[in-house]
Amino acid sequence: MARKPRVEFPGAIYHVLNRGNYRQDLFETAGAAQAFVDCLWEACDQAKWKLHAYCLMKNHYHLAIETPSGNLVEGVHWLQSTYGNRFNRFRGERGRAFQGRYQAIIVQPGLRLFNLACYIHLNPVRAGLVGMDRLSEFRWSSFRTFMKTKPEARPKALGTCEWLSQLSGSGETPAGWSLYERHLAELANRDDLRKNAEFDSMCHGWVLGSPEYRQELVQNFEKQTIAKDWGGKELAEINDIRWEAQLRQGLGELGKTRTEATASPKSADWKVGLARWLKSTTRVSNRWLTDRLQMGAPDGVSRYCSECRQGGRPSAARCFDRLTTNIRG
Question: What CATH number did the domain enclosing 124 receive?
Fold first, then answer.
């Protein structure tokens, strides 16, 4: 049976979660966890997502994502496949890093989003990884960033947290965050924290919202039959048009042509810098890049771009910096 299409619309908020394949530990080392966080920031920048909360556990992750452009599927596919490729390359393994289909539960703004943020941030406490008194020291959670970093110093995707006003009424202020920490401590002291039915319900169903919100969604979806059923053919055509336009911009900035791409070595630094820039600004596939820039096997594109990102290709990095500086999305 074919999978049902994801429900996507501009401004949608989701609770996204997935586990390691066969429930294996994905984030058992600091390096693996940091690699996922790095991919997450890249995905947010590319997809223009707003991240309301996140937490990494040893074998799964939780994200509260807002999608202003209604592009959940494309963004999560890039996030998981990119991390999976880096994970397998580091471990010398093959196969999927994540188990089957990720969950994506629509979340109503306001109180439901606030409750979801509480659930996500208390995950390490519920699992017994840290006590509430050390939750702000847990590295792989947005709670630590919110408590220890000023808004202007945070990753751009975290932005402001309107959901905080559900508790304090004062918005994002030091007093508001202190009140939020006390609220989490009160929740953590509940006897049923580990098996809290309300918390567990946040990982099930298709929507976290009031009956009225659910009804509103259903009514809107009935008007969007065509958009809901858009599939691979239409999306591939749209992507190809976008990526071609971006490629032409990049070639023009570097003073290069398609003919030069064919004649140049597959790992020429200017091609690597251009490929890395395209991958940082779009969700372009390695296969597409090898076809357009004549870069050999798709796996080679990932390897060249990784070398550039890690400082191993200075000339390629200069091309990447030039494109990033001179071409604005």
Answer: 3.30.70.1290
Question: How far apart are alpha carbons 276 and 263 in whole angstroms?
Answer: 20
As for how many domains the chain has, the answer is: 2
- Tallying the residues shown for the chain, one arrives at 329
Residue 66 and residue 16 in contact, taking contact as beta carbons nearer than 8 Å:
no
Considering just the CA atoms, what is the radius of gyration of the chain in Å? 21
Please give the backbone phi and psi of residue 205, each rounded to the nearest 5 degrees, phi first: 85, -170
Same domain, 127 and 85: yes
Residue 21 is given by DSSP the state G
User: Rounded distance, CA 273 to CA 317, Å?
Assistant: 6
pLDDT in tens, 39-96: 999 999 999 999 999 999 988 999 999 999 989 999 999 998 888 888 777 665 665 6
Please report which residue ranges of 72-130 form alpha helices under DSSP H. Answer: 72-91, 111-126
**What global pTM score does this model have?**
0.72
Answer yes or no: is 310 within a domain.
yes
